[in-house]
């Protein structure tokens, strides 16, 4: 047994546990075990019943407002304090609110505290009044008329979309969808051999999320969609499924935290795309629920509602499933990384199920379409001998997967797909 984000050990009862009570009540809840050393070994309390009384008094006297908790005494003499996620956030200890950082408890910074205050008031950032009330919506109007056949677009439309209050006040969701705003946006870069080599760069901010979305798709087409002449026709081919990219970007815009001054980051190269959305998972959803599309808890339900009406996202949290479906039949599969302050979706370039050996796959994965590499580099990175690398590369050439360029000392090899 080890300490975790929602589990803490205490050998004895002292005031130090109260910070963790604040953290558990402010976020996802958790348990504190009294009579357990840091290494997980038990050290039963001499008077468990007395410890329960002391814990109860300390919590009631020191945590404001009072959290929802329960105390139990185990058969081994360990006292278990279970703290539930609270509805009246923030929960303070000595006038300070706390949060968990992995297995530690730290004071909530100004941004985290402001989010707790909003959550306690049953508000979200997107619902707060916009600092700018002089907003125009020509982009949204065009999308609404084009995508859903809306004939009339006026203030009643904006009120129906929950972007404008009944008394005529625009909220932050309205500002994000307006033609211009002061919010961050999308930062896109196409990298070469290393991250220090930037082959293409584009940033979109201060404009409607719909314009940003459209611009991102246009950049995607530049690098990952090509036309090939087949017979008498020109056929478009996607190196990465466009539906997967659209889903990843739309969800990054809709579900990110907008009170954080950071752009959605789209990092592209010859192997694939990484879409990084600022902000971790919304409260009330676990990583496993997110990955299995079991539960939809939109951080920004107003934005999600507009994107759903415009048919840019699905309503019931099927983003992960839709991205996976786009990769059916591909050897390369997308991946999802949930971090404390971000979610990263990785979309690799499509590849056939090539039935390669492990050694062949290592060489194949090191090669790039746009950057030929010599045998010496492949040997250095794999640890294989020159003769082994030569044999493996020849097999890949024979299968039409790799091509040779140059001659003599300038000989290099690159992937064909």
From TrEMBL:
One Pfam family cited in the UniProt record for this chain: SLFN_AlbA_2
Alphabetical keyword list: ATP-binding, Nucleotide-binding
Domain Schlafen AlbA-2 positions: 3-108
One GO MF term: ATP binding
Domain of life: Bacteria
Name used for this protein in its record: ATP-binding protein
């Amino acid at each position: 047994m080890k300490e975790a984000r929602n589990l803490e050990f205490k050998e004895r009862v002292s005031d130090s546990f109260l910070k963790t009570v604040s953290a558990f009540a402010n976020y996802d809840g958790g348990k504190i075990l009294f009579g357990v050393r840091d290494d997980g070994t038990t050290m039963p309390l001499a008077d468990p019943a007395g410890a329960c009384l002391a814990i109860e008094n300390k919590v009631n006297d020191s945590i404001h407002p009072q959290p929802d908790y329960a105390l139990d005494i185990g058969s081994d003499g360990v006292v278990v304090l279970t703290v539930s996620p609270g509805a009246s956030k923030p929960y303070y200890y000595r006038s300070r609110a706390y949060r968990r950082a992995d297995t530690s408890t730290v004071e909530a910074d100004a941004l985290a505290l402001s989010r707790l205050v909003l959550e306690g008031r049953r508000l979200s950032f997107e619902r707060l009044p916009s600092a700018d009330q002089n907003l125009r919506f020509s982009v949204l109007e065009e999308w609404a008329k084009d995508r859903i056949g809306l004939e009339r677009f006026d203030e009643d439309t904006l009120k129906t979309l929950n972007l404008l209050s009944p008394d005529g006040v625009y909220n932050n969701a309205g500002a994000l969808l307006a033609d211009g705003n002061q919010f961050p946006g999308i930062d896109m870069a196409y990298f070469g051999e290393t991250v220090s080599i930037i082959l293409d760069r584009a940033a979109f901010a201060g404009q409607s999320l719909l314009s940003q979305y459209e611009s991102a798709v246009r950049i995607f087409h530049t690098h990952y969609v090509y036309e090939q002449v087949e017979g008498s026709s020109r056929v478009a081919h996607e190196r990465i499924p466009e539906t997967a990219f659209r889903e990843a970007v739309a969800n990054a815009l809709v579900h990110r935290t907008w009170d954080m001054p950071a752009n959605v980051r789209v990092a592209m190269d010859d192997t694939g795309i990484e879409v990084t959305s600022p902000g971790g998972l919304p409260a009330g959803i676990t990583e496993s629920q997110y990955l299995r599309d079991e539960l939809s808890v939109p951080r920004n339900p107003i934005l999600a509602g507009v994107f759903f009406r415009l048919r840019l996202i699905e309503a019931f949290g099927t983003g992960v499933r839709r991205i996976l479906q786009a990769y059916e039949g591909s050897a390369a599969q997308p991946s999802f990384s949930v971090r404390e302050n971000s979610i990263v979706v990785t979309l690799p370039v499509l590849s056939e199920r090539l039935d390669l050996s492990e050694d062949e796959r290592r060489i194949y994965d090191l090669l790039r379409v746009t950057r030929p590499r010599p045998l010496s580099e492949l040997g250095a990175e794999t640890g294989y001998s020159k003769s082994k690398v030569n044999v493996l590369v020849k097999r890949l050439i024979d299968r039409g997967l790799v091509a040779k360029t140059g001659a003599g000392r300038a000989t290099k090899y690159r992937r064909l797909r």
